[in-house]
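Exercise 7.
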Amino acid sequence: MAAVIELVNNNELAESCQLLIRFHPNHFIAGSRFEKERQRTIEYVKDMLHVHIVEPVSLGGGLGHYSGKTCPRKPP
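Solution. The predicted structure, written as tokens, is:
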């Protein structure tokens, strides 16, 4: 993932763009390796102009997080 982040941050792609990062719900499991990965990623991109973290909203009551998916799912 770091290579893609660097390409976007350094404006090295054919078109200027931005990168939005949404974490999987596993990244919010306390004490997991995924939580550590999320923390490292947030720290890594904190000062990057074209790379953004999309923060999920806690659903409360132990239901996890929702990241606000923007793409409708196709029926099977």
